[in-house]
Structure formats: C-alpha cells, structure tokens
Write a structure and sequence with these properties.
5-stranded antiparallel β-sheet; 7-stranded parallel β-sheet; elongated; Rossmann fold; 2 domains; alpha/beta; 341 residues; disordered N terminus; disordered C terminus
C-alpha cells in the first residue's frame, strides 16, 4: 500500500531499521510551473511509496527508475530532468504544467549486518571496535550480565545500529538474519558454539561469512562432529576457524578483537561500508532500535537438529561447559555453564 502523504523521514528510517533498500527522490529544481515545489521528497522501496514529488508521469518515471536502482544495488545518486509539456514523449501519460523539473535520486544503502554471538572478554572488545563502523551490529548472549546496559554503554554510543538479543537459543536469532549477514561465533560454551555452527550451516538464506573462535584442535573436533551431523566437506568449509587477520598475533582479548575486526573489514566490501556511512539522522542513543532487548519465545519442538548438535559436545573433554534440558516448567530452556572468555 502506498502512502502519498506519508512521512518520508520516518519511512526512510524504517527501511534502515528493517534492513531494506530504498531511494530518496527530491525535487532539486523547478523552472516554470510544476506540481510540487523544490525540496519536495518521496521515498521509494521495492513495493511501497511514501510522500510525493508531483504524481503523473513525473512521479511514475521516478518510481520506476528508483526501483531499477534498488534492483541493481546502485550506490551513486542520479539527477533526472523532466519536461512537463504536451509535446514531451512520456511513458506514463502527459503533464501539461509547462515547467521543467529536475529530480535527485539518492539510494538509501542497507547497512552490512554483523551478528556477534558471545559477549565475553573478546566479544566485548570486538563489539567496541565494530560499533564505530556504519553497520548493523547484533549482539547475542544467553547471560544477562554480559548485556548489561552500563557495561555496553560505549558500544551503544557508537556509529553502528546496535541490537541486543538476550536469549538462551541463539539459533532463533540466526533464523532472522538477512541474506549476506556476517556471523561471528565466540560464546562461553563449546556446546553452544557447535550448535550455532550447525544451525548456521542449515540456514536457507546465504550468509556473508561464518567465523568461529578457537584453536586448530577445536576446529578439527568440530569438523568431525559436523560431518557426523550430516554436513558435507564443502558445507563445513564455509566456516572460518581460527579467525582473525593473519599476522596479528597475541592472546590478549583486545588483540584478538583487532585481528577479527581486520578480517571482517576484508569480508565487507569497502564500497558497501562507504555507502552505508551516508544516511539519515539517527534516534538518540538508548532509544528505539539502538537498544533492543529481544527474548525469543519458546522454541518449536520440531527444531531437533540443533538439540542434537548440542548433545554432540555435551560432556566432551574440550567443552567449556555443559548443556542441560530443564523440566517442563521451563518449557525447554537450556542452562549454560562455563567461564566467559
């Protein structure tokens, strides 16, 4: 449904919050008579319109071109001139206002999505770095204290659009990720890490990348377990482990975070980060989508594969904790145990 009188600024912000592309169309110049004044704006998405730049052929042509820009993932703005006279050859009918209108079409880029599972020592340092970049940063942990607002104050205050997800089942967040999202797995529990790897490889939507923190020994064990769970070698190879930019060495959490952030910058094209950096004014920090605490509903019983993935590592010698299924009163919630990295 189109909203000709809709608030274009709110519409553009909503598209950004939803991770959907759009185009901002502005009447840049008017010479002579025209249906709208200079400065009039309209936002176009794949299937909706907010605001108006004048209707008729002028607007229909602008909408069609805007959607071509969306489909081609164009990043550069364009200027278009329209003659509003009965002699002009138009595709969508005549407009006889008599003037000339120039329209500026500016693509509204979708910010790259980085989902970070585990906010221990390394995860926190990585979140601090990534929060300074023009990305959508999703922070996921099963431990409420790791997502404390005071602890994450400097993360929330960055450039990134930050979403906070407190959940015992990170797989539910995985299922909601858009195509091309980058996933970094570094929880406090090897069983949880494995379940997330298993779930990430089963997603129907392609991801931009899957990174897993850990040693070569841990990855060797995970590869065997993933193969036992039915994944092919080609599928397993989609996971990168160990993670981090080669040449940056050290075990300090901040050093590891720098190495991982550097590797992510290589994975996210510079052009995508640059276009995502330009955009709309944000809501004040601590409001709206910048501070979102999401507690998913109880998982459906049909999702057995991730449970099996967790049980593969339960009680193993390398696991940093255990995974248990509680009674019916807890409706299937799992307890995690183990020390934070």
């Amino acid at each position: 449904m189109d909203w000709p009188g809709g608030d274009w600024l709110r519409a553009a912000q909503q598209l950004r919050d939803d991770g959907q592309p759009g185009v901002l169309v502005t009447v840049a110049e008017v010479r002579g008579h025209a249906p709208r004044e200079a400065g009039a704006k309209m936002v176009v998405s794949r299937d909706r319109i907010w605001g108006s730049v004048g209707g008729g052929n002028l607007e229909a042509t602008a909408v069609a071109r805007a959607r071509e820009l969306i489909e081609s993932e164009a990043a550069e703005p364009e200027m278009h001139e329209a003659q509003l006279n009965p002699h002009a050859r138009n595709e969508h009918g005549r407009q006889c206002c008599g003037g000339v209108v120039r329209l500026l079409l500016e693509p509204l880029a979708v910010r790259p999505v980085i989902a970070l599972f585990g906010l221990g020592h390394v995860g926190y340092e990585l979140a601090r770095i990534l929060s300074r970049l023009p990305v959508r940063l999703l922070l996921v942990d099963s431990r409420p204290e790791q997502l404390d607002r005071v602890r994450l104050a400097d993360v929330i205050d960055g450039t990134a659009d930050v979403g906070i997800y407190r959940t015992l089942l990170g797989e539910q967040v995985l299922e909601q990720l858009p195509r091309g999202a980058h996933v970094v797995i570094m929880t406090h529990d090897h069983a949880e890490d494995f379940a997330l790897c298993d779930a990430a490889l089963r997603l129907p939507q392609p991801l931009g990348g899957i990174g897993l923190i850990g040693s070569s020994a841990k990855w060797t064990r995970f590869q065997a377990q993933l193969a036992d769970a039915g994944h092919s070698p080609e599928t397993i190879a989609r996971i990168t482990c160990p993670i981090g930019q080669p040449g940056i060495t050290g075990k300090d959490p901040a050093v590891i975070a720098v190495a991982v952030a550097a590797a992510l910058l290589h994975a996210v094209p510079a052009s995508q980060r640059a276009t995502a950096a330009t955009g709309l004014p944000r809501e004040p920090k601590g409001r709206g989508s910048d501070w979102t605490v999401f507690v998913p509903a109880d998982p459906p019983q049909e999702r057995r594969r991730s449970d099996e993935g967790r049980s593969c590592l339960k009680g193993g010698p390398e696991a940093s904790g255990t995974t248990e299924r509680e009674g019916a009163a807890s409706k299937g919630a799992r307890r995690r145990a183990g020390e934070a990295r």
